[in-house]
Amino acid sequence: MSKIGSARVFDQLAAEPRRDPGVRILGVSPLNALAGDVERNRRTPLAGIRGAAARLRPPPSGAMPGRRTTAASPRHATPSTGDAVWSWTDSRFAQLLGERGATDLATKAVPFFRRERGPEELARLFAVFRVGEHHAVITIGDWLKHTEALEVKEGFARLIWHEARHTIIWTRRMRELVGTRVVEQHYPDPRRVEGGASPEYFRLWDEYAKADSLARRLAYIYVVDAWAGFAYTACLECIDPVTRWHLQTILADEGFHVSFGEEMAAKYVTGGKEREELAREEEKIVGILANVTDGFLTSEV
After folding, report:
1. How confident is the model at residue 4 (pLDDT cuts 50, 70, 90)?
2. pTM above 0.85, yes or no
3. How far apart are CA 61 and CA 63, in angstroms?
4. Rg of the chain taking only CA atoms, in angstroms
5. Which tens digits make up the pLDDT trace of 81-128?
6. How far is it, in rounded angstroms, from Cα 102 to Cα 77?
7. Where is pLDDT greater, at 213 or 37?
8. Out of 29, 84, 158, 183, which residue is the most buried by the measure of CB atoms under 10 Å away?
9. Mind listing the pLDDT tens digit for each residue in 14-54?
10. 270 in a domain, yes or no?
């Protein structure tokens, strides 16, 4: 039914109201046309999100004062992101890895995240993801109280909201996959999961919570969340459509986190000692994440 034809029908319906019940209008739309409408309605807002994400992203140089700026170009090692609005390869994390390191990461870890899993295995993997999101809510909430710069406070508040949303998303998805009773029985605490992650994964969040300066805290935000962006992007290729839809939202959030962290570090971490502290923390986090990745490869998820 064309837009003009449908308008005439509704005009007639409004002009000649009937009180008795019954069907008065039946619209038939070809399946191909309907699919096209759905696709267009999906892609239009995504295009707007991409534009917003691009505006939030720091300049490609990404260079913070006094820091090395060896650019990595590991795009050939990047999983295809489809409609993802942000790529981890644009991040400081990718610069720290270098092209060879990024290629090695993708070669090792992408097959793991793309592995076909049943509902129970997916629920366990999502429980592991949820641990990180929930720990971030708690830790950044503590940081918020001790942060002076108003725009950093505002960014931290937004991160808390995002991480809480992600925690809820993973919890709901787990319940949809295996049922509420199973989740309550096997995954009752979002802070931990039994038999699903290596000790290094929990060490990461313990170290995250120990960050006691703005430089260290921002490093954790933009390095760890870029790694999370890599993991979530890899999952996009083989995940079910419902989870994929959620991952698009999460990836957009992770892109903001990384851009925010890098931008605030460039603005507020300016002293020589602060920059040295930032560089040391970056290297430390990258080392922990390498162990976390290896732990995933040998885990039960």
Report:
1. very low
2. no
3. 5
4. 23
5. 344 456 888 899 999 999 999 999 999 999 999 998 999 999 999 999
6. 7
7. 213
8. 84
9. 667 666 677 777 776 665 555 555 555 555 555 555 554 45
10. yes
- Asked whether 123 and 187 are in contact (CB, 8 A), the reply is yes
CATH number at residue 173: 1.10.620.20
pLDDT value at residue 19? 64
The domain total for the chain is 1
